[in-house]
Amino acid sequence: MSSLWIHPAAILLFGAALLPLIPEKIRKGWLLLIPALVFGRVFTLDHGVFGQVQFAQWTLTFGRVDKLSQVFGYIMSLMAIIGTLYGLHVRRAAEHVAAWTYVAGSIGAIYAGDLITLFLFWELMAFSSVFLIWFRGRRESLAAGYRYLLVHTAGGLSLLAGILLHYGATKSFEFVAFDVNHPTAAVWFITIGFILNAAVPPLHAWLPDAYGEGTFNGSVFLCAFTTKTAVYALCRGVPGLDILVPLGVIMALYGVVYAVLENDSRRLLAYHIISQVGYMVAGVGLGDAGTPVGELAINGACAHAFAHILYKGLLFMGCGTVLHQTGESKFTNLGGLYQKMPWTFLFTLIGGLSISAFPLFSGFVSKSMIVAAGFESHKLWVGFLLMLASAGTFLHTGLKVPYFIWFGKNNCSKETWERAKDPVWNMNAAMAITSFLCIFIGCYTPYLYQMLPFAVDYHPYSAYHVSETMQVLCFTALGFFIFLKKLTPEAKISLDFDLLYRKGGQGVLWLARYPIQWVDTAVGEIYRAGGLIPLMLTSKVVGIFDNKVIDGIVDGVATTVGSIGGKFRALQRGSVQENLTVAFAVAAVAVVALLLIVS
Amino acid sequence: MKLLALIEFLRARLKAVIWCCYGLLGLLVVIDVFVDKHHAHTGPEHIPGFWSVFGFIACMLIIFLSKWYGKAGIMTREDYYDE
After folding, report:
1. Which residues form the domain of A543?
2. How far B58 CA lies from chain A's nearest CA (Å)?
3. Which segment of A201-215, A304-318, A573-587 scores lowest on mean pLDDT?
4. Which of A268, A245, A266 is nearest to A132 (CA)?
5. From B83, which residue of chain A is nearest by alpha-carbon distance?
6. Are residues A470 and A513 in the same domain?
7. Residue A267 lies in a domain
8. pTM across the whole model
């Protein structure tokens, strides 16, 4: 333990706290400096365990640095630089503060060595990122933000329940790989918390809902951090959990199907996040510890997360630029823009080719590791279905997005057409840098492979693999142009699982009222009828925990949210604080109830 | 604006570009005959052009199944959630 150890997230939080006080003249300098410092700090971290703090009878570990956390820390802090550069001209300081706090949450979760610290930063992510949606200022974004918060509160709750159960069983908060061969209820609860953030169906509908509604640069941050932090947590906590393989394959295909139907470019990209994270989730599922195939799969999941953050960021920057410049993101209101925004087209195309895993682009060297792990573990269906999803990825992100925005039928209104032009220098620069990185990773494999947690003995550029990929992709393109008419976007939306909590306020009210009322009554009954000693003992432990830990966390988060929330009162229909307080109260009650029932 | 000029150049010769693409597709299948296939995992992969057929069928499957799914009631009017 070292008292001088500086946490990268602390630099970012410090920078965020001071940002509103920095005079506007030098604010751009500050915006460039702080993420660069964070990246530099991550770069210079030594492996080991640092930043341990004694808290009641537990030791919190803020800095567990090893190869797995480093590869994620590296890419997250790199993305913080790119994302901030992209939105450099945004004048409202609070937007940057929210984005940086969100990134700090992600970096904090990645370096967390224990489950309490993990949970703390996990929630920080949810409660800061929601502002990136609210800042869009539309009526829809406000509602989408609330739904986002609602879903993530539920996910956080499951995670917390799992952590508490795990502590009850093992008396340890250490965050290491759980026993995936005999998963306990605690492990399932924690996994549900993780896969909700990874957007595994049916717990995924929050993602397109929220990311399609974010601000033009907010969604660039959103698309990078939440799901990939969850992938990290899965790699760390449950590598080799079998159920993740079919879930990952379902995700990969699910995103593709909805992308066919989608009319909003950013929602299409959001569905493709689900598809791409599906590869990573499947990779984690194949990642049995100690086997060469398992190591290949975990390497693949990490490499693909790394590459994905860059090319998906690039794609969201491209479509975000179109939104920023024209005010439109729907294909049915765009088209033919190559004359006005050729550079944005080129950058988006590079993102599209990278996500589609064209040779010489980043996706090629990362995605194929997971597919290879699928084939090599003799799960042929995994390999073939992931190849099928690859075709779908190119079909939409590589072809549909560029074609229907920059070519195709010109559906632009006069106003849209006149507003359209390539963006300010900083947005161009951010896209150019990311494009370069996507190609660099694809061409020079040691850069990425040397960062991966296990030694890499994998060569993507074999004649067979290049031939296989080129055939699948080019013949997909042939199909695209033959069936172009079929793919013409329609001005419609597609129903998804969010229907369950969106349709009618009554439904939500019913959910909130009756099941929780029922749990409450049930607990009351158990107490009255049983009065059992173990029950009382457990409740006592939980009580102590509730007082010392949960209250601390809740108070901390509530104060932060409260202070930020005050500024947004004008934006809100109700008041954030009240809603959050109620949400937290309900959460606390439900955790205790759950614990009593399970134990 | 050289990039725009390049795009315009290619668009003005769309026919030629399309023929080049067909040529590329043919070439890919021809090359596949000579590619070393000891990395292949299953028997069918040894057939030249297997992945070409796979890619094309995959593309069709995705388009038609998704459209069918969308038309089965999943796609709806944009103001569905507005009331």
Report:
1. 504-598
2. 6
3. A573-587
4. A266
5. A504
6. no
7. yes
8. 0.85
